């Protein structure tokens, strides 16, 4: 029952022949462009040490919550998949875990994981038969062999993938040692960091106290005073810029912002860093800090990303046994119109500030986000995110934002992944879906084909460079410069 | 102006020729499979007595709120359609009512009712001209004649429709006499019940007191004590299982659940069964009872269905004159992420429990339901429901749930109908829409055609059998067993 | 790099050839029908004075917030586009403003503005090259010349556009002088008004006091007493009917209604017209006034339109500098099910009342609006509105409302525009999208082609005439009369 593994060269293009031809022509020009990855979660240690990865399970399965949450949803124990719990990695046989994954490939039919896996197996590893129970051992052995070769070490793959820029994400208390090591090594791969200060902003985060202590140590500031705390943020933002960062990132439970006076902010800060605060205080402090971050961004030119709307660690039992980031984060309804107004009252008319908004609540695309980005100079829309980083999700994003925000208030694709080997697959999906969308506009007489080629280039390369300030010459209007 | 009535053999398949060919090939293998109907509202009396139905109006129009609400929305009086009010059936001439319905067929263009009616008229009754003012009498007479024949008695149609399993829905206070009569008759048709205890759980239901009295009588328990009340539920669940039930069903206004201590629950129960309670108490009691039902399901293995989010009897004037279930139930915004958490804190990691979630709020598909079902072992997604049991509704369901939850966290189709003659039509629509969806995945290179055939079978037969525990051997993983 | 400007005769039709052929055939019969525009914001002064428009910038750019908000979102200053601020029109050179607009045409790719502009440039002005930096001056000069000719005066274009009916919108304090002048002129163009009393209902509106004073003056009523206030509304509604109005319009922030007793209403009125009221009072008064308007509509037969859900003047800085209606209105989540119930408790079963509902929250289409309109005799659905008046927006409207509400609980198209020259373009887009939608239903076997032709006519002409009571003989059921 093993099926051949062959990537359809026309995958994700519309079936209708004329539209497909247009999509093919668009893709022919942009499909092989270098990868610009301005937001993700790969481990900078890989590129610093350039050490070999070990085996299929430890590289591809056990760290990937997209994969194991689906298996878990069907009653498969995480321990049997090699997923670490609060006591560390289980004593699971990696080959057995891989076999279990292989035997349940049908669960991924119709999901983006299936597209990414097919691409990784066919393009990165060169398999010609699909993964299933019958080929599991062959896969496990072949992947292990390849990973032991120099061609599959992190830097070699980075170069093979033609990655022009890759951003990782580090906390405000991170010493950025791996990034320093990368630069010191003389390797030319462009790997930058991103400033993600959530753990020193969210007083409800279990690591808040520890992170604050390190934050104090790294900055030498009195981070327990409001003035010192803000100064520490400014210092660390400068450290991060020195490590290549052009952006910050903020993953709050809601998009709420606040516009408190300096006195109110100071009093709130004293409260939440003391011992007597409420959940409402914690939320208000996160809200005020988004506005503070926007003000700092006006000063230092960093791009601000807001990723709100995830109910983290929803599964109480699993959080108790396994901790965070185990595929149990569930999106919630998110408001932007009221939530962002206090911050926009402060910075909304700035033309030198860039705030990129993401959402897990697709209902906001046409109702809130496109109208906001289609008006405010400082707002741009990030691509379809997380659960919506998928062909249908991307299609809905374009269909529901373009008519109000246009293409030029969006910022190209983010892979947002820690699964390094899937990065080319993810960018390829986005490029194909964008070409399919543009092809339909051309086929239905809404856009000229030469305009579509220009837009396809901008969605792939032009907008991301400009939005994340990756090139000095990228400040010019995108299409006008073409 | 009469048009011929001919069902397009390719109806609901995409027009694009290659995709249509794939859809046809998929449908050729599953279109004629037996019907498994695990959730619906047909009257068990029909199969117990096997009595003839009378005429077109009384069988097809007057009891079907999908049809008469549309006519009512255009200013037609319910009395003129033969719809009963609080005083019983009106003295309307059934032929005249049928004529009014026939003359307004244009109102149903583009609705699923039109698809179902066409199927019933063409396939069940063999008409070759469409219903309209000119053919109304011919239809009325011909249907009346057929209904008087043995071939159109309930059991004969059940067999002709090739129904392998049909679940009805009865309240906790139902003596299940019709189901007993069916089994006693020796007839082999498999008709089971479903435990729906809303009227003894919702203290705001106008029939609560009466239902509780019958609940007490049928169980011999002291249902006015918390302990006796829970014991009565356990007893009646056992009675229902003896009448073939594998599932319970819960139709609350919201999806809210609670996780009270035993002491708190007992106090709440005392309050809501006394004379001094608030709407908030009533809601909290319904919430706690969902958790109690989940705990009972862990004990007795019954599958739990939750159908929340309908604002019942929205039209005050119509409720006063006609009572409930008159096409005036309007969906409301529904939250699942916070609402289900208290129950999931108790049973969320169970792999031996199955809770099937439905929604009338399509915004929850991609934002809440697919992520929940794609993580929690005990959660599955019911099909597109009620207003969304339609081609576009089903398409949105697949497009918005598959990428996160896959196919294998869904449970196949429910017809959810009291319109017995439309059951084959409804299943046929679902099968066609699923084939169309799968055909697109194949045509766009996301799925191999042989995988699509396997999925088509599972969506039609495999998943429903497993989800509703209809076969002893259905516990094996679905596709893995293929 | 200038591209030719040629409107694709098949634009907005599906690419699949058989479906496209059906769409073409449908459009061939309805594409050239007269325009009925029952709701919009053109200036009646144009038709009263029939004065020449001046230049491209003052006619097409500076007053159109669809256009300048997009340019503003990319950092272009409104002053550079000729947009007036609180001090009046800036001293911008109109030709320079036009050049800036021309050089940024890429921003409109994929937006409905692009479709409308192409249509205006190609069909109204006869350009054969697209607008861009290179053709900007040529456009500016050519448009200026044409506007100076008699063929481009307002009445000539009205006739050339084949407008059978055009409704403008005036406040309760408007003397309706332009409408009187139009009638007195003997010109046969049918231009009517619409009663929009928001500024005398919304006590939070900055013009409330001024509008009330004029309201008193025009009616001679004591508008500061509850009884006199209601009488003034009745009088002005009669004035508006005499100026051709068949409808009223209500643009509240929410859809909330109330059902207060006469005593409560009177007390509330006294409060909000005094000096001591809260935001909650203001909201309750707006809510009660929707119900009062519905009651008046039962008396005088005017059709009631409700346009809720816009957060007006979201950009604080811009509102301070430029005032209202500057492209900074952002949609918000809107509830209808609870919000409308108090009003529906009063008028919900009336078959002689027509209330047309609009939304900016597309999530309500399938969840709330279609079920409400598919039940209540007095409710109908207005077309896709504002941000959703676009090909994708219209397609979502049909896909998400038709299956529950049918076509016959909708009311045809509204252009809702102040951009007079774009009216034919906007109606053309709607007609094409409707034909495309119907063509798919035919191609997928859900509708016969001759039925689709009948529906296409009704969506273009039949339903709007009936819904807005534009013809004495339009009271008959639409399709049944065909």
From TrEMBL, chains A, B, C:
UniProt key word Isomerase: yes
One Pfam family matching this protein: UxaC
Annotated catalysed reactions: D-glucuronate = D-fructuronate
Molecular function terms from GO: glucuronate isomerase activity
Keywords: Isomerase
Regions that span the bilayer: none
Record carries keyword Isomerase: yes
Domain of life: Bacteria
Record-listed E.C. numbers: 5.3.1.12
Listed pathway(s): Carbohydrate metabolism; pentose and glucuronate interconversion
NCBIfam families reported for this sequence: PRK02925.1
Family affiliation: Belongs to the metallo-dependent hydrolases superfamily. Uronate isomerase family.
Name of the protein in question: Uronate isomerase
């Amino acid at each position: 029952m093993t099926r051949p593994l062959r990537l359809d060269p026309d995958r994700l293009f519309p079936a209708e022949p004329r539209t497909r031809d247009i999509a093919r022509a668009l893709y022919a020009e942009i499909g092989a462009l270098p990868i610009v990855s301005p937001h993700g979660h790969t481990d900078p240690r890989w590129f610093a040490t350039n050490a070999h990865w070990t085996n299929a399970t430890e590289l591809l399965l056990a760290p990937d919550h997209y994969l194991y949450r689906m298996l878990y949803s069907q009653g498969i124990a995480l321990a049997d998949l090699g997923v670490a719990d609060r006591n560390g990695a289980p004593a699971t046989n990696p080959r057995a875990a891989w076999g279990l994954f292989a035997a349940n490939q049908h669960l991924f039919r119709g999901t983006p994981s299936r597209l990414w896996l097919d691409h990784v197996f066919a393009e990165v590893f060169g398999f010609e038969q699909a993964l299933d129970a019958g080929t599991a051992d062959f896969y496990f052995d072949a992947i292990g062999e390849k990973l032991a070769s120099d061609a599959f070490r992190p830097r070699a793959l980075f170069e093979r993938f033609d990655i022009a820029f890759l951003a990782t994400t580090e906390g405000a208390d991170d010493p950025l040692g791996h990034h320093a090591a990368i630069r010191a090594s003389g390797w030319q791969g462009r790997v930058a960091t991103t400033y993600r200060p959530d753990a020193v902003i969210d007083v409800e985060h279990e690591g808040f106290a520890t992170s604050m202590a390190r934050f104090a140590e790294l900055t030498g500031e009195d981070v327990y005073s409001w003035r010192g705390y803000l100064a520490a943020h400014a210092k660390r933002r400068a450290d991060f810029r020195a490590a290549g960062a052009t952006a910050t990132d903020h993953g709050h439970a809601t998009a709420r912002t606040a516009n408190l006076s300096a006195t109110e902010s100071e009093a709130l800060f004293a409260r939440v860093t003391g011992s007597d605060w409420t959940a409402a205080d914690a939320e208000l402090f996160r809200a005020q800090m988004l506005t503070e971050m926007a003000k700092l961004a006006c000063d230092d030119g960093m791009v601000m990303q807001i990723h709100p709307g995830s109910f983290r660690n929803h599964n109480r039992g699993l959080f108790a046994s396994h901790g965070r980031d185990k595929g149990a984060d569930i999106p919630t309804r998110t408001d932007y119109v009221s939530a962002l107004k206090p911050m926009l009252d402060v910075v909304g008319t700035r033309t030198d500030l860039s705030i990129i908004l993401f959402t897990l609540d697709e209902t906001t695309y046409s109702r809130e986000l496109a109208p906001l980005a289609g008006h405010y100079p400082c707002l741009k829309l990030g691509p379809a995110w997380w659960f919506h980083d998928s062909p249908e999700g991307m299609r809905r994003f374009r269909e529901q934002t373009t008519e109000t925000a246009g293409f030029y208030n969006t910022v190209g694709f983010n892979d947002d992944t820690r699964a390094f080997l899937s990065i080319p697959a993810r960018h390829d999906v986005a490029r194909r879906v964008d070409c399919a969308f543009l092809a339909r506009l051309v086929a239905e007489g809404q856009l000229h084909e030469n305009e579509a080629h220009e837009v396809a280039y901008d969605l792939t390369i032009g907008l991301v460079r400009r939005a994340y300030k990756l090139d000095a010459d990228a400040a010019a209007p995108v299409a006008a410069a073409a």
